[in-house]
Amino acid sequence: MASTMSFGAFSKATELKKRLWFTLFALVVYRIGTYIPIPGVDPTILADVFSQNSGGILGMFDVFAGGALGRMTIFALNIMPYISASIIMQLMTSISPQMAQLKKEGEQGRKKINQYTRYGTVFLAALQGYGISAGLEGMSLSTGQSAVIDPGMHFRIITVITLVSGTVFLMWLGEQITARGVGNGISLIIFAGIVAELPSALVGTLELGRTGALSSIVILVLLIMSVAVIAFIVFMERAQRRVLIQYPKRQRGNKTYGGQNSHLPLKLNTAGVIPPIFASSLLLMPTTVASFSAGSGPEWLNTLTAMVGHGQPLYMMLYIAGIVFFCFFYTAVVFNPDDTADNLKKHGGFVPGIRPGKRTSEYLDYVLTRLTVVGAAYLSLVCILPEILVAQWAVPFYFGGTSLLIVVSVTMDTVAQIQSHLVAHQYEGLVKKSKLGGRRK
Fold first, then answer.
1. Which pLDDT score is estimated for 390?
2. CA distances to 223, 369, 388, 394, 432 from 206, in Å
3. Which of 32, 76, 126, 291 is the most buried (most CB within 10 A)?
4. If we measure between CA atoms, which residue out of 394, 397, 416, 393 comes closest to residue 405?
5. Separation between Cα atoms, residue 188 and residue 199, nearest integer Å
6. End-to-end distance of the chain based on CA atoms, in angstroms?
7. The pLDDT of residue 438
8. Which family does this protein fall into (predicted)?
9. What is 101-139 written as a DSSP string?
10. Which residues of the chain have pLDDT under 50?
């Protein structure tokens, strides 16, 4: 991709530069918000309490929040309630006939579904915000000092309003980045949070080596593994199966049209980075509040929190099951073999050796299912192996497979969109030159 980009074309692409500057400004605003604390919280005591529980599910949540949860800021919930609401709405479009009908109504139906998703985001953010406020009141040091300066209903109401407002603002900011910037806004917000904390995670890992908690060989192996995982992710994300499509020749008068061959590219990982994010979100949603009250809550709650900790068999099984499920579910949402087969039939295209129509749809579904199996296995491998290393050597979560997968995938998607903007700008320049040449003639 980089070889096809020229700095000369980039300097002339005024619209692209405006989009990039807007994206950068929006991400800076997001990072500033991750340092604005919630009113009524003692940051010193909170940091001490959080450091004792950062090795579990809270540490994973803090990765996606860009460190905002550990500092308990206005963006502590990050964009996770919106992702959870999106999951619920996509499931509803497959289960509910009314929601499925809305999806088929085109732009108008999509606006209604987005509106319902926003309502669901506010509802989920309010629930999680109340759980966090109640959990904060239960946080205290062994000396008895509480993390909340003035606990009570007043503190809970302020915390819920603050966290819900932060989530809604991030939801709006992500939509603005998608519309007026470059890349997918929601993915870029998660990407910015992970990348911003990578330097401190690297320093922390090196500090573990300096103090002797990790050997130099283990650190070297981890760095080599990270580079290898990045290369593996790039290879698998760009892998695709090309289904050959033929168009018959058509005789119109004395001219012959068609007869060319084309291909239908089917990506190995059609769902992209969505399955790990969705699976993590579903695992984080019910256990976030439980983790805050671990040790002081009922026995069954403490047992559940321990069982879904990183490196535990139950967590691994649920994580893999969630990734596999969302791989198939999201692929079915994105790619419809029936519609593709109908479009090919309308335009006279066919797969060699396969009859048009239903047979073509079954063949595409067969090929896509096999690809999705391999893609789900690849995502599960990338996300689970580093989790084992985290559990064994307490490596920061920022070097986990999910974090690297998000960073690499979002980077590739953003670079591809920048390249498409550059190509569109070059075509616009060619069209303007041809118009000017025509006027001169």
1. 66
2. 11, 43, 20, 13, 55
3. 76
4. 397
5. 18
6. 37
7. 52
8. Belongs to the SecY/SEC61-alpha family.
9. HHHTTTHHHHHHHHHHHHHHHHHHHHHHHHHHHHHHHH-
10. 1, 294
